[in-house]
Amino acid sequence: xxxxxxxxxxxxxxxxxxxxxxxxxxxxxxxxxxxxxxxxxxxxxxxxxxxxxxxxxxxxxxxxxxxxxxxxxxxxxxxxxxxxxxxxxxxxxxxxxxxxxxxxxxxxxxxxxxxxxxxxxxxxxxxxxxx
Amino acid sequence: xxxxxxxxxxxxxxxxxxxxxxxxxxxxxxxxxxxxxxxxxxxxxxxxxxxxxxxxxxxxxxxxxxxxxxxxxxxxxxxxxxxxxxxxxxxxxxxxxxxxxxxxxxxxxxxxxxxxxxxxxxxxxxxxxxxxxxxxxxxxxxxxxxxxxxxxxxxxxxxxxxxxxxxxxxxxxxxxxxxxxxxxxxxxxxxxxxxxxxxxxxxxxxxxxxxxxxxxxxxxxxxxxxxxxxxxxxxxxxxxxxxxxxxxxxxxxxxxxxxxxxxxxxxxxxxxxxxxxxxxxxxxxxxxxxxxxxxxxxxxxxxxxxxxxxxxxxxxxxxxxxxxxxxxxxxxxxxxxxxxxxxxxxxxxxxxxxxxxxxxxxxxxxxxxxxxxxxxxxxxxxxxxxxxxxxxxxxxxxxxxxxxxxxxxxxxxxxxxxxxxxxxxxxxxxxxxxxxxxxxxxxxxxxxxxxxxxxxxxxxxxxxxxxxxxxxxxxxxxxxxxxxxxxxxxxxxxxxxxxxxxxxxxxxxxxxxxxxxxxxxxxxxxxxxxxxxxxxxxxxxxxxxxxxxxxxxxxxxxxxxxxxxxxxxxxxxxxxxxxxxxx
Amino acid sequence: xxxxxxxxxxxxxxxxxxxxxxxxxxxxxxxxxxxxxxxxxxxxxxxxxxxxxxxxxxxxxxxxxxxxxxxxxxxxxxxxxxxxxxxxxxxxxxxxxxxxxxxxxxxxxxxxxxxxxxxxxxxxxxxxxxxxxxxxxxxxxxxxxxxxxxxxxxxxxxxxxxxxxxxxxxxxxxxxxxxxxxxxxxxxxxxxxxxxxxxxxxxxxxxxxxxxxxxxxxxxxxxxxxxxxxxxxxxxxxxxxxxxxxxxxxxxx
Amino acid sequence: xxxxxxxxxxxxxxxxxxxxxxxxxxxxxxxxxxxxxxxxxxxxxxxxxxxxxxxxxxxxxxxxxxxxxxxxxxxxxxxxxxxxxxxxxxxxxxxxxxxxxxxxxxxxxxxxx
Lengths: 131, 583, 253, 113
Ligand SMILES: Cc1cc2nc3c(=O)[nH]c(=O)nc-3n(C[C@H](O)[C@H](O)[C@H](O)COP(=O)(O)OP(=O)(O)OC[C@H]3O[C@@H](n4cnc5c(N)ncnc54)[C@H](O)[C@@H]3O)c2cc1C
Ligand code: SF4
Ligand code: F3S
Ligand code: FES
Hints:
The structure holds four protein chains of four kinds. Chain B has helices at residues 15-27, 63-73, 80-99, 132-144, 212-219, 247-250, 286-298, 319-326, 328-338, 393-415, 422-441, 449-463, 470-487, 501-525, 543-546; strands at residues 2-5, 8-11, 33-37, 53-54, 114-115, 125-126, 150-154, 156-164, 167-175, 180-185, 188-191, 224-225, 230-236, 254-256, 303-305, 308-314, 347-356, 359-361, 373-375, 380-381, 467-468, 534-535, 548-553, 561-566. By secondary structure, chain B is α/β, with parallel strands linked by helices. Chain B has a five-stranded parallel β-sheet, with helices on both faces. In chain B, strands 20-18-12-23-24 form a five-stranded mixed β-sheet. The radius of gyration of chain B is 23 Å and the shape is globular. By secondary structure, chain C is an alpha+beta fold. Chain C has two domains: 3-105, Roll (Ubiquitin-like (UB roll)), CATH 3.10.20; 108-252, Alpha-helical ferredoxin (Fumarate Reductase Iron-sulfur Protein, Chain B, domain 2, Orthogonal Bundle). Chains in contact: A-B, A-C, A-D, B-C, C-D. At the B-C interface, helix 3, helix 4 and helix 9 of B face helix 1, helix 2 and helix 3 of C. The complex binds flavin-adenine dinucleotide, iron/sulfur cluster, FE3-S4 cluster and FE2/S2 (inorganic) cluster.
């Protein structure tokens, strides 16, 4: 009876992320990729339309108004915002900035990112003619 | 019984054991090392050391100063040849650790920084914030991983040495995960099993510090030296016994009684300068500070709390920035375990058992009287600590004498005669096995082991505490004799083979009883007060009769035999220990 | 002095008699400043001496007492009973490790991984001891200090979903340790370590779930260390492909 | 042990993630306006053609579209692995395949403008 007989617990491969809030959050972040990917394809579709001429471009813009397209865009907007927030939250970890013996506090780095984000968004809105 | 063949077996993978293993590997990569430990190396209690390690490195310091601080701190019971070797080697060993990656705290110019410690004339304690032992242990452990000649046997509990033909040829250890006992056959054995604080109820030591190595050597006929000298650290947290490093006081922390008065000035440690003055007040030696607490308590000037009597450690004037840089763990420990944030509040502290000056008798090469058997670290007594160890000398001792044990054991192993007939060794090992298997067979008739341990704790605290007397020690001796008898009948409640910690506790209590017995008897016989050994009935030091090491020899059925050995004095004749403004 | 009585629900597993783990309950009278470890010790000393678990320092530095406490990997000696509001406390062995017995888990895999990342100073040239220490400014020390604080408690492994799903993953603490040496100004071994660290079982198996850093009792931030190594490994990968840097290590052989 | 080639895609993933974090919310918002029939002046056929006709504009559009694709592809691969899909090789081929084709098409369309 001297052979060790350790007991191995197997996590569920398909539902483990439901066992804890932090795993759900992580999975949600991972899944923003679905929407970002979908949106990238949408943009690609738009480029195709733009290349094909004015008519296709107009059809493309009009197609954005269908209920399904609207729903998708709202979801994408939510997902991208979540992506932005979670991405900025961890940037200080991936790229810490050391000044002398201290590290620049994470919230300052994240704060700088938010500032840049606002500026970038304003520029986009300006050139798009929204502002 | 399985036999594992090796050249050198090391019991214990704390600071001393790891340093020894690396020393063997570096001095001769051909020698096989078996590194045996009852816990994973990085769990060893060296991990808990906070303050730092002493070694002369700065221009304003000198080896002579370190020598004199150590010798007078030890109340002249140190062997001065050993101390001299120790202070000479200390800087090299600490530098070696730096080369291995230890993250020592630094000065702005990149040199290592040093801090003040109790009883030291000049600041010479290398430190890594307040996690010095942690960093030393992890550095040694990680460094040891690169030597292929070192094989680790983690979570193997060693029970007995195998001594045959007048020399040590191996040991018996139990693989805890299977309960299997194995014999390690070795040309040389090094014991590095650490201290024994757990025999007291209130200690800074971890639960693994249970005198195993001392007991193994003791039973094998090696005397235990100077066992009566048990160090109380003056600043432990009440309740848990968690240590607040002397570094707190080195950085400028002060001790006050219930009136907010720096009471140490009443005990020849003044004047109470507002700044830290070396070797005075809070930077006096540990024995004096712990004794001062005892007197304050007698005078009713301590603070009563739900954990009992305490005094206060005041760090507030150091300010948050310095506390965070130099004492971050202290802040965390005090805040969580007693709810006092040292940045804003007074921290309750009291003396607590911390360190064993005594241990396995070795010479300056870490060799015991039994050929082939070496010992180093807290379990050994070389002796550099005499009657009272100075803070931060122990970590350095692990390195200096751990390394020496490794090198000398390696040399011995290379030159060793071929070992005797294996069957003789196996017979020895079988006897050792029987000691364990008997526990499994015994029927329920004795005390529960947890109660036995409690009784042991009480016997030690009541009889062999900060102050002792003929009466209290006699009582302890009697109680311990009775407990040893009880232990002979103890049975196991858990008879499993797999990771049976109940069995381990039981064996550990057995070890502690033997070592405690040696302590009480050595203390009873020493009719003087010296360093940490304070007798109410013999208040003075008596160099005439007791400028000697005590040696306790094991006696299976009765009291140990106490013998004496001269102290080696080379250049510092015994004098008065002076602290305070007179230094 | 009893402050409150709690129920401990402890997962037991005795390989010699049990086929699978089971919960066992104990009633423990706690004092106000008790940590969970004190309650478990109470069980061992007074109620059931057959309970096995690891502990030693009782001061959150030896790293032996990591357990799942109410589902979270924590140090039993640093988790106060008063901070757990429920009357019942559930204690299990660290998740993602094989249970040897009761609360004791097998550490072989972790120990092997620790060794694999070469956690020691590797230098092109040794400096003789007589020449004294290497100089290292406080700023250079600060660069890697955080990653030296790991006590190998393995709480991070118990939290990491990638380790749960694929046990070959070298995992947070071992990788953070590699980063610790890479960032040390005295070390020249970063390239050598990259062969292990930047392999498929190393940093690339991490999906940045960040659970490791969230549960780490010593604030080591292994997640950050791994991300920084990903950035570093990516830069050097592109540099090598673009011929800006010589290839090293195994890839060269 | 061999070093991984993941840096190739991880570099694209990280760059794409950063870009997406900074730019996508505003871009989505702009197109959303169009969806509600409020297309801003910048979305006119003429302005868009002018923008995409310039080399700088082409480059910007290329970077946004392609990197978003690679970001999504790599993360989706991770997510599917997490969701229990063990066929990592197949998932990777499809995900990166789509991203690759998308990248080529982006170039193709942009060059037509
Ligand atoms: C809280 C605290 C703070 C301290 N601070 C300082 C300080 O600042 N400066 C200083 O100089 N000193 C300090 N000390 C003292 C110093 O840390 C210790 O004396 C020293 O670390 C002991 O090291 P060691 O290698 O001898 O033993 P340990 O580190 O205790 O290691 C003992 C080893 O032996 C093994 N072992 C024991 N029994 C067995 C057995 N039966 N079978 C197999 N293996 C066994 C254990 O597993 C362990 O690996 C401090 C001590 C404490 C408790
Ligand atoms: S990184 Fe933190 S959680 Fe992980 S082993 Fe180290 S100390 Fe424990
Ligand atoms: S939890 Fe695991 S996935 Fe990465 S960030 Fe930490 S190692
Ligand atoms: S007992 Fe050492 S970390 Fe908890």
